[in-house]
Amino acid sequence: MSPEGSTASAAAGLATSMFRDTSSQLKDALSTEILSTVARMARIAPRLPARRGQLRQDDRTGA
Asked: What domain of life does the UniProt record list for this protein's source (predicted)?
């Protein structure tokens, strides 16, 4: 293989490796963000009115 060919092959291998690493990091970050959002929604949901205009007793009293 010519020096240019081996350099191109090495560059392609490096690019593939970097893409896989970046893809994995993005997937992990997105998974973490989704889980965080779902957890936040689960904490908020019990405080939301069941129907429009309806408040829980403790919301009316300010407790």
From this structure: Bacteria
**1-5, 12-16, 58-62: segment of lowest average pLDDT:** 58-62
pLDDT digits (tens, 9 = 90+) for 22-42: 999 999 999 999 999 999 988
Report yes or no on 37 lying in a domain: yes
Helix (H) or strand (E) holding 29: helix 3-44
In a domain, 16, yes or no: yes
Residue 5: inside a domain: no
Question: 0.90 exceeded by the pTM?
Answer: no
Give Cα separations from 18 to 9, 42, 48, 56 (angstroms).
Answer: 14, 36, 44, 52
If one counts the domains in the chain, the total is 1
Which range of residues forms the domain containing residue 17? 10-43
